[in-house]
Design goal:
420 residues, Growth Hormone, Chain: A, 19 helices, mainly alpha
């Protein structure tokens, strides 16, 4: 029988790698834009860089279907092992790419291809890991265990942010553009090897083994999901819309926002983001634990309500040009969204029955990420370019939080129910 620590680490490690890479890309978007899409216009280069960022998300629903099926048919363990191998290879390969200056159009073409491979693996990684964690958890600790999945994502963001802040501080601008940016992607191979080893040596979840023993596995999980559980799938989609837009707007896009539009040095922008990540990381397990006591629904409603009413003034505050204002605003964002981000993973596992859980959670979560999440930095940049208003990205955030708030109102409380 594996230890709780081993279970939790196995669930976390892939998310650390997944979000480390995506955040590093977001933080280096302006550099990647110049190296792979040189045009002489910083905003155009940034837009093209974020467009490639969004392209990776096109594969997430496909990855959700593929890995959701693998997880429901062959087990959570097998799906997790395959996904981390794909992520490690594609992340490391980005660091090896030649630039536009060297091979011309082939450079951005290869970049897009690798982002598509990443998107495929990411489509099943996070949701399968949360299913794995919650299905291993004691009934009264499901909120806490589920929050570890998103904690892994935050740790990945924290590592990406801290690494970016460090490397932009110690390297000159010339070194950063010539070779420094590559170093951040090479770290992927280390996390990938560690993750693969751990996942090859973990136990399958008791709930999935129970399905196998009783011969209750679905012969066609996707078909059964669509025919029998469309309402639950819609709930997962609506709630995940806020997770998608919120995460990528607040904790990926804002670093570039502070650097490009507010004109902070890159190292300062990344330091602000890193600080907010530390606050978020500390709060997530606390909120997961709290949801086991008070329920998932109250935390979801409070977090989405506060985001809806505070997003616009916070964006104005962050964009004022003051370091202190930017730091305070970013930390407040971290505090008010921590509850939702901690509670959503377990909630989405709990609303689906075991035999279609991986497919339902993966598709319901990844579709809004493909539609709204990957495009968040692109839309935020475009809103500013169109309106000239540095606070305009908040409008997209408000749309997402309001959607999740409405879904939260009709959500049935799941914290005290047995996993089906």
């Amino acid at each position: 029988m594996q230890t709780h620590k081993k279970t939790l680490f196995a669930g976390m490690v892939g998310n650390i790698l997944e979000w480390y890479d995506f955040v590093v890309y977001g933080f280096l978007a302006s550099i990647i834009g110049r190296l792979f899409f040189p045009s002489g216009d910083e905003t155009i280069e940034l837009l093209k860089s974020f467009a490639v960022f969004a392209v990776g998300f096109v594969m997430r629903p496909i990855g959700a279907i593929v890995f959701g099926w693998i997880g429901d048919k062959f087990g959570r363990k097998r799906a997790l092992t395959i996904s981390i191998v794909l992520m490690a290879i594609s992340t490391t390969a980005i660091g090896l790419l030649p630039t536009y200056e060297t091979v011309g159009i082939l450079a951005p073409t290869l970049l897009v291809l690798l982002k598509l491979i990443q998107g495929l693996s990411v489509g099943g990684e996070y949701t399968t890991s949360v299913s794995f964690l919650v299905e291993h958890a004691p009934k009264d600790k499901r909120g806490l265990y589920g929050s570890v999945g998103i904690l892994g994502a935050v740790v990945g963001i924290l590592l990406g942010s801290a690494s970016g802040a460090f490397i932009t501080k110690v390297l000159s601008e010339d070194d950063l553009y010539s070779w420094g940016w590559r170093v951040l992607f090479f770290s992927g191979i280390i996390l990938g090897l560690v993750g693969y080893y751990v996942r090859k040596n973990i136990d399958e979840t008791p709930k999935f083994l129970e399905l196998e023993y009783e011969e209750l596995k679905s012969s066609s999980p996707l078909k059964e999901l669509l025919e029998k559980y469309p309402k639950k799938l819609s709930q997962a989609f609506a709630l995940s819309t806020f997770q998608a837009v919120g995460f990528y707007t607040i904790f990926v896009y804002i670093a570039s926002h502070l650097s490009v539009f507010v004109k902070f040095p890159k190292s300062v922008a990344l330091t602000i983001n890193t600080t907010s990540m530390v606050i978020l990381a500390l709060l997530i397990p606390v909120m997961g634990w709290l949801s086991d006591k008070v329920g998932r629904k109250p935390i979801i409603l409070l977090s989405t309500f506060l985001t809806t009413i505070l997003a616009y003034p916070l964006f104005k505050f962050i964009s004022s040009g003051s370091f202190e204002n930017a730091l305070i605003g970013q930390v407040i964002f971290a505090i008010i969204t921590a509850g939702f981000m901690a509670v959503l993973p377990t909630t989405l596992v709990e609303i689906f029955p075991t035999k279609v859980r991986n497919s339902g959670y993966s598709i319901g979560y990844n579709l809004p990420f493909a539609i709204f999440g990957g495009t968040s930095p692109l839309i935020a940049t475009k809103l500013i370019q169109t309106t000239g208003n540095l606070a305009s990205p908040a409008l997209y955030l408000i749309f997402a939080s309001l959607t999740a708030f409405i879904a939260g109102i009709i959500l049935k409380e799941t914290s005290k129910l047995d996993l089906n």
